[in-house]
């Protein structure tokens, strides 16, 4: 469900609440229930954002909160099961624009706090999710070459924060 408000013709303020059903994870080969699929689960998300469109540039920013079940091998019995939640809280900003007649750019920056909650193991409970960076940036530029209407040169730059 989304609610949008347009204070001006080129501005949008929005809020979205969503719930999606996802296929359950498959147990890894090292688990006692190897290859077994877990039951489907729900992911819940809330987002609040702002978008601005000008003649040359589109800008958007958003805050989001995503909560989904987290599955892992339970050390007590070596069974792969839902053992907590993964909660992702973050902000993102994106900009897309045309510079002149031949150059188009797309860029974005995301800051993320992925945390495991409600786990039975004190070492992982309320801790940062391992392997997910806390920030990521990206800039893509496409230049239309004069050789033809469908000839482009693209450069894609990405920089990602450290993973814990």
DSSP summary, beta strand count: 9
- How would you state the average pLDDT, rounded? 91
DSSP strand content = over 45%
Number of helical stretches of at least 4 residues: 0
- Helix vs. strand class: mainly beta
Coarse shape: elongated
- Helix and strand pattern: EEEEEEEEE
Distance separating the two termini = 34 Å
Which regions have little confidence, pLDDT < 50, spanning 5+ residues? none
The description of the largest β-sheet is: 9 strands, antiparallel
Q: What is Rg?
A: 21 Å
Helical amount: under 10%
Would you write up a description of this structure?
The protein is mainly β and 164 residues long. Helices cover 0% and strands 63% of the residues. It has no helices and 9 strands. Strands 1, 2, 3, 4, 5, 6, 7, 8 and 9 form a 9-stranded antiparallel sheet that branches. β1 and β2 form a beta hairpin. The chain starts with a strand and ends with a strand. The mean pLDDT is 91.
Please summarize what this structure is.
Helices cover 0% and strands 63% of the residues.
Task: Name a few traits of the molecule.
164 residues; mainly beta; 0% helix; elongated; 9 strands
Per-chain topology:
Blueprint: E1 2-5, E2 11-22, E3 41-53, E4 57-74, E5 79-99, E6 103-117, E7 127-128, E8 135-144, E9 152-160
Antiparallel strand pairs: 1-2, 2-3, 3-4, 4-5, 5-6, 6-7, 6-8, 8-9
